[in-house]
Amino acid sequence: MKKKINRIFAIFALIGALVFTIFAAPAPYSLFGDAQLSSPGNNSPTAASLTTAGTNSYSGVDFNIPSGLTFSNIEKLSTDYEITTGDCGSGSPRFQVNVLDPNTGTQKNIFVYIGPAPNYSGCTPQAWVTTGDLLESANLIDTSQIGGGFYQSYADAEAAFGSYEVTGIQLVVDGPTQTVLVDNVMINGSTFTFESANSCKNGGWQSFSTAPGPFTNQGQCVSYFARGGQ
Length: 230
Description:
It is a single chain. This protein is α+β, with helices and mostly antiparallel strands and 230 residues long. The chain has a single domain (27-194), classed as Sandwich (Jelly Rolls), CATH 2.60.120. The protein is built from 3 helices and 13 strands; from the N terminus they run αββββββββββαβββα. The chain has helices at 2-23, 154-161, 218-226; strands spanning 29-33, 36-38, 47-51, 59-63, 77-85, 94-101, 106-113, 129-130, 140-141, 152-153, 165-173, 179-187, 190-192. A hairpin with a 2-residue loop joins β12 and β13 (190-192). The two termini are 40 Å apart.
């Protein structure tokens, strides 16, 4: 009887593991260069710290996006950010939209700069700032790598390159002497944060004063991330 009970528990454990494997969502982003997670974030326990002070002299976050997108499908890009070292400028920090150039068959980039327009320099240091939608008409984007203008409105860029396939989107820091915290990144209707189930521990669940919180307890917080952020 004892062996049968142990066998039953083993079967349930295997089923539980399979169910978690089936329903656990893949990580929504990956860090590259000298990027690392940092605490705290903006109204959350965790941010991504992007710096040029490491061994690679660049940092970034590569976001998972749905396949089949074209540039005209990218309707919103925004992030919360805090300059902790240096300033914005020299094209950094920025969103980098990878597109497939149909004329050459190669991947190129559309750059969406972060900072006060029109020079994208002179950022407020040591304070969280929200970019708002960087694809609104008041902002300019750089399509020079695919034959467009260095500063071009989104409407003009969409008219010229809207059919180009999007193969990836990153947040990049590679300017001189910069460390930038980023959090609550929005790409279209998706918000990317940098928390995990570990962020819920030791009272961390109480730090979520905005989405994806607030949570009522640690278990609810852990469960949210165990389901892949749902």
